[in-house]
Amino acid sequence: MNIMASKPFTPEEARRIVQFLQKPAVFLNMTKDWPALHWTVEHLSTCLTERVRFRIGKRNEDMAPLFETECSYIEATVKEFLSWTLNEGESLVGPFSDYHYKEFWAYADYKYIAQLFQDKPAIFQDVVWSDFGFPGRDGRDSTLWIGTQGANTPCHLDSYGCNLVFQIQGRKRWHLFPPDDTPCLYPTRIPYEESSVFSQVSVVHPDLKKFPAFRKARVHTVTLQPGQVLFVPRHWWHYVESVDPVTVSVNSWIEMDMDDEARVGEALTKTIVCALKSVPSLDNNDHWLNPTEDRVSSHGENMQYLNLAVKACMDKRKDDTEGWSLLAGQPRAEKPERNCPKDTSCFKSNDPSQTKQRSDDEFCQRSGQHAHQEAGSPGTSEEGAGMHISTNDMLEFLVHPDVITLVTRLIMCRQRELQS
Ligand SMILES: O=C(O)CCC(=O)C(=O)O
Question: Which of 205-214, 375-384, 394-403 has the weakest average pLDDT?
Fold first, then answer.
């Protein structure tokens, strides 16, 4: 029998599911013919011979999440990792020698396959995301995760895109929460990582005295088995734990239209976090930068990044409006694509651009931004052909009375919660 014919969805059908579904889902029988199905740790130990960084954590049942800033790190080959798991740490030499297998877990997480296999590009084709309707998307656009039992990723949401996760070896348990549950998950940007918002709650052993609203969070759990593909919709929170002795998975984040605006939010967050955390002070000497971040960027770099993000958003908005009037009455998906690096051309938000623009305009009017722009004063100051946001502009936005009121309310809410 033709394996392709026995797949439950055509690429077009799978893509539409990914495009419109607002809940997590597991795809079955979509990967039977994917060569990456053979990427077990044994196999990877033969083709991935360079050392990679493993994150090490202690197996325990803490009521606080183990953030990446609190883990240990070692460099080891997959072969050394494999023998650590096989010997269960008995008579060990080498990079894992300080870590008893029964006490610790290890995780080579979030590894860009494009970097791992840069000298073996043929291997990229082992991962066939084109079966999900994303032509040309393969291992080059994916990350690899290799872990032992107990290896976990703290609960977080990804700011950009949605996610397809292919489980290859062993099983992983996913705990997912909808975006509407964000207040119940006590979001934090420390540790700071661009594109990840962490939860302060250890979702498997929550401290309900400290985080009472977590009681109301609506968890969706699934244990992902080898061969299955999990779809994680945009902004769903997730905590992930390996439940078998060895696990391997590969994922790919799929870009979405809304990422442009999210990029502005991320640039703002980075600018504020870096500015405040770079100030020497007694309460400012914690490990706040996630190890996945290279370094602390300067204020100048952050403002430049912010300006680029805003410009990309405005250019897109212009394109969308023009596209809409050119194709009046046509669905947006018909509009010629410009901004997506990959072919995600029909992968659009459900928001018609006009509705979004109207609500943006109303918001601007309410917050006084139109008046500013028309008067040519702060909000956005002119510079050359474009509109440059300066540090003063940014300060003005941040100390806007509405923002200050919201922050005041958040402070008071937390203090009241701590008191009760
Ligand atoms: O597999 C994991 O441990 C976490 C994966 C993850 O966070 C993601 O794919 O967004």
Answer: 375-384
DSSP class of residue 160? Answer: S
- For residue 148, pLDDT over 80 is answered with yes
Could you tell me which residues come within 8 angstroms of residue 261 by beta carbon, excluding any fewer than 6 positions away? 313
Residue with the larger pLDDT of the pair 323 and 281: 281
Burial code (b: 16+ CB inside 10 Å, e: under 16) for 208-244 equals eeebeebeebeeeebebebbbbbbbbbbbbbbbbbeb
Tokens of 384: 């050359």
User: Is 306 close to ligand 1, i.e. is its CB under 6 Å away?
Assistant: no
Q: Are residues 146 and 84 in contact, defined by beta-carbon separation less than 8 angstroms?
A: no
> 54 alpha carbon to ligand 1 midpoint, in Å?
15
> Whose structure tokens read 């291997």?
123
Measured CA to CA, the distance from residue 226 to residue 220 in angstroms comes to: 19
Give the whole-angstrom CA distance, residue 277 versus residue 291. 16
Q: For residue range 381-407, list pLDDT tens digits in order.
A: 444 445 899 999 999 999 999 999 999
d(CA 92, CA 359): 62
Q: Cα(55)–Cα(45) distance, rounded to whole angstroms?
A: 18
The two beta strands, 52-58 and 72-76, are antiparallel
Distance 223 CA to ligand 1 centre (A): 13
**Residue 156 alpha carbon to ligand 1 centre in Å:** 9
251 Cβ closer than 6 Å to some ligand 1 atom: yes
